[in-house]
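re: ur question from earlier - yeah i can do the single chain one, its not a big deal. heres the input i used so u can compare w yours
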Amino acid sequence: MSPVHIEPRPGLKLEVAGREVSGRALDTTADHGRPIRLLLGLPAVLLLLVLLVPIVWTVVWALHGDSLLGNFLAVVTDDGAWAAARNSVVWVGIALIVIVLGYGIAVISRLVHGLWRVLLYVLILPFGVSALVSGAVFRMIFDPAPERGMATALFGEDVVWLGPGLIWLVLASSFAWTWLGFVVVLFRAGLDARGNGGPGLFGRPGLPKPGPVTYIVLLTVLVAAIRVFDLVLIAAPGSMQVDVDVVGLHWWRMTSRSVDTGAPAALAVLLFVIVGLLSFVTMRRRRTTPENSPPAPAEESAGTPVPAPVNRRWLSWLIGLGLAALWLLPLVILLATASHDPRAAGSSGWWHLSGLGFGSFAEVSASWLWPAVLGSVFLAGLATALVVAAAVPMAYLLTWGGLPSWLTRSLILLLVVMAVAPVQMYAGPLRDLFGEFGLAGARTPLALVHAAAGLPFATLVLRTAFQAAPPDPSGTRRPTLDAIWHGRYLRALIAVGVLEFVLVWNDFIVGFLISGPRSTPLNLLLWGEARQFGISAGTVAAGAVVASVIPVALLLATWPKVISGLTGGATE
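and the output i got, formated as tokens:
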């Protein structure tokens, strides 16, 4: 190249000699920060190993024996296991009915916009109550003694509610009472976010489509149904336990009767396969169903009630008020039973005025209540902190980390599999480990297990919320990790934290199967009180009321933010 002469000022001449450019061009689009960002997933990976190792251990147990599939053959030829499997399928049907019913109520609720906020808080109250408390209160309602059970007093002793056949109505009612509000509120949020535009459900305009929240509802409620445990354990009398046995309970009874690990491990693997197939079908349905639809017209936006004829509006109001009264009744019964002294609560119904007082509260307060409450606060608080601390960077990595698409898909699949893994898949090895090292009853290791179990779902929820959040006004494609902890992403963090705290607080099965009663979470001690149900109704109710105050208050205080976080801020 010819030299170039430059004279920046008179008397000063510069000669610049250039040459041809050689070598590889600099790639200005290369992401040199990716190796550093990969470290964001390290806390989550370490936490997941707490479950992955015992899950692999359980599979090894299942395959160990005289033949490779001998334990599986023993399970599938066991009449008790088949009966439990059939009952678990019945629970899937119950869950589907709850989901369909919840969708219908969500659609109707759009006709009564003024009543909706009241109905929202009433319906979501039972979601803050543990399955153990829910089962206990419904057993009180349907107690076979007419002097104690309201249903028996109304319909007579000829109707045995806790007997063959009708016991399923009691169990299904208790499950619906807990989960229907969650389904209705999420479906309503999805309907509000989408307005009335676009094709309806199944392509029918009269059935509005709730959008991506359908996936959250299906996955959560179906998995809860197939993993049901403590509800059956407390609501069904001892004589009916065999008739309503489910796979999870059958596994526990197998481990209680024998030291053999092969057959229970094989049953746990089969339960895992069933739950995994349900999740796979749900995910496939989500991927094959188009979610995009034309934007809703302004007059049909999220906050605007759907116009309806006056007669339909009155009918909707009646349905809403009736549903609210029905949903409050079990809580009223629980509080009224707890407001009797133990002797009166065990011998007469909650509607009797004799025996009113705080004797039941005083009895549980003097023995086990407050240490158990403090233990549950520590357990739920520590598990929630661990989950949020590990899930946020992992969700950030999956959303904006620039990972190869195949790796992102693989990690998401692993998280889905881990999210639906039944407790029985890792309970056996962890229980042995806790016993071997003297950890039974220790709260910190148990909190670690809770955090590992809650991490996959929390990460999936956060990633979905991050993807669905409105674009950054500054035009930044990838926010900094610091920005995740405030602003438009804060609601997703609140949703994850609140749900994790409530689920750990209300847990029974993880502490019961892994750590044992020495860990003294609230629900384990409630179950101990409830084993002699008739004479301990007052103390069970008093303990249940106190156990429900913190999670219910937390849900009521944060639920709008939780819903907004689960739906990516579309319903603020």
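The first strand starts at residue 4 and ends at 9. not sure if urs matches, ping me
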